[in-house]
Structure formats: C-alpha cells, structure tokens
Amino acid sequence: SRTAVVIPAAGRGVRLGPGAPKALRALNGTPMLIHAVRAMAASRAVSLVVVVAPPDGAAEVKSLLADHALPERTDFVVVPGGETRQESVKLGLDALPEGIRVVLVHDAARPLVPVDTVDGVIEAVREGAPAVVPALPLADTVKQVEPGDPKQPGAPEPVVATPERARLRAVQTPQGFDRDTLVRAHATVTDNVTDDASMVEQLGLQVVVVPGHEEAFKVTRPLDLVLAEAVLARRRA
Ligand code: CTP
Ligand code: MG
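Above: the input record for the complex with cytidine-5'-triphosphate. Below: its predicted structure, written as tokens.
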C-alpha cells in the first residue's frame, strides 16, 4: 500500500514579518518548501507528495520543484491552497489518487524534520493506529489564563489553572493517518482547529503520540530562521 504526504504551504507567514510567503523564503539559499519536500521524500515509504501552494503561487511552486533535485521514486503534485490551514489540507486530500492508505500531513514550516521521525510516524499508522502525532515534552511550565482585552495588549491576565507539565506534549508534524479516517474527519469537523489529529479526536477515535524531534520545530518567528540556518550549517559541517 502506498503512503502519501500532504504539505500545507499556503500560509503567508505573518509572524515571520514582511516578505515572500513563508514556505518560499530561503534557508541557506534553498526555499523552506524544498527542504520540507526533501525531508518527506527521504522516507522510502513515501511515493507521493502533494504540495498545497499559496493560492496564487501554484505555477511558481511547480517550477521550484522542477528546478531542484528530488528523488525519482517519488511523484509530486501541486494544488492551490485556501484561506485557513484546515482548508488547505482538505484541498490537498482532495487531490489524492485511489490506492493511498496512509496519509501524512506535514507543515512546510517544519523543514528540518529528520527522516527517522517520519518513518516512526508511518510505522505506527501501519501497525494500526488511526492517527499518530510526533511530540516532545515541554521545557516551559504552561498556564491557562483568562485572556485579556485584545485592545489592551500587555495588561495582566488572571491565571485559571496550571496543567501538570509532565503530562503535556508539544505536538509537531508530520502527523500520520489512516486515509479514510482523515478524509472523514475533514468532512465532519467544522470547528477551527490547529492540528489535524484533534479532528480525529473529535470523531471519538484514539490518537497516539510517538517521539518527536527538536529539529522538527516550526519556523514561526524571525529567531526561528536563525536557528534553522544554524542547524543546516551544522549538518553540512
Ligand atoms: N498553511 C496553509 N494554508 C493556510 C495557512 C497556513 O497551507 N491558509 C500552512 C503554512 O504554509 C504552514 C502550516 O500551514 O506550512 C503551518 O502554519 P503556520 O506556521 O501558522 O504558517 P502561516 O500561517 O504561514 O504563518 P502565520 O500564522 O504566522 O501567518
Ligand atoms: Mg498560521
């Protein structure tokens, strides 16, 4: 059975600051998206990668993929994305051919995930889990607060609770799914969610966590670009 990856790459990258869409920004000279595509295609299990491009950037993404060396055993498809990450993932799922049983969803904004993490997720889905997420324990203690007035940023916010840190995990991608389960989740769940596995939780199915990796961090703010380029430089050394 074949495994496909959907890569949502349609976001603008507002938190990264002005410039090209985040996925097209360079890390040590190569677009973040190309790093992410290579990270997925590095897994021998992956036979298809669907890239969800910025809505007006599908042609540009197609030529980027053509211009960079990628493994020959992998097929690549590009589709335009939507307004939200959730919509973009759904548009990617709509492009999957028959015969795909396992689907990974991987943020273009996590360009440096090691192949062992990818393979670990795929293996757990193949062993029968309907949804698998890589995750790490937290370094910071987390507080739940009563959010303040958005018009008064920086005003003190009352703390509501402190969840036990040892039981919390920070979730990464690629998240892995039984294909039919993820398609059903996207057809059923309409709430705003920040990851795909939570949609499967809402179907009442058991999601499991496997070990993530520090290098699977999400490039979100300018400091993350500094870290990503340092990781790449260390790999080449
Ligand atoms: N994404 C997408 N379609 C959207 C929004 C986000 O495909 N409409 C993708 C991003 O390209 C990214 C991933 O979802 O690879 C994770 O989202 P995030 O890190 O939030 O990226 P952006 O939404 O681009 O960044 P920001 O929230 O700072 O604007
Ligand atoms: Mg976003």
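Notes for the reader.
The domain at 2-135+171-236 is CATH 3.90.550.10 (Spore Coat Polysaccharide Biosynthesis Protein SpsA; Chain A).
Residues 222-236 form the longest helix (15 residues).
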